[in-house]
Predict the structure.
Amino acid sequence: MQKIQIFQDKKVRTHWDAEHEEWYFSVVDVVAVLTDQPTARNASTYWAVLKKRLKAEGADELLTNCKQLKMVSTDGKHRLTDVADTKQLLRIIQSIPSPKVEPFKQWMAQVGAERLDEIADPEKAIARGADFYRAKGYSEGWINQRLQLIDPNFKVIEFDHFRMTNPSKSMVLQIRPRI
């Protein structure tokens, strides 16, 4: 299923692959939006130069895994277009020097740092999950039950948001393996 997404009043062609349950994005369209290219031709040229730069950096796997799909072009004809899945697109975006990309790169760096912290201390991931559910308006009992369903080998042994060890959080979860 092909669909047009709008980003900052510009069109980005997308394709949903139902078999693999994955979105694919036209790389040229994303490049056009992020680099303010006036025409599709300029965006294609920019993407060709960027591909050479990525290849020189050793990102051969990224470029090899990019697919081509037939999408409707600006002249109305179906043409093969380089597309990338979400993971590939995030990698490509990192290589684009643009003021529009900078806030996105900062966000990706922050998320990456948080995930590394969670790998080092899994309780942070559990606390983040609880905070997410709390922000969505779920009750504390539902959150407790949900977290136990995620990993039944763990049991919440302390659930007290009146005695907080971290005032910026609304509760602290301590876990231990079930005996």
Notes: The radius of gyration is 22 Å. DSSP finds seven helices and seven strands in the chain. The first strand starts at residue 2 and ends at 7. Helices lie at 27-35, 40-56, 60-65, 86-94, 102-120, 122-135, 140-150.
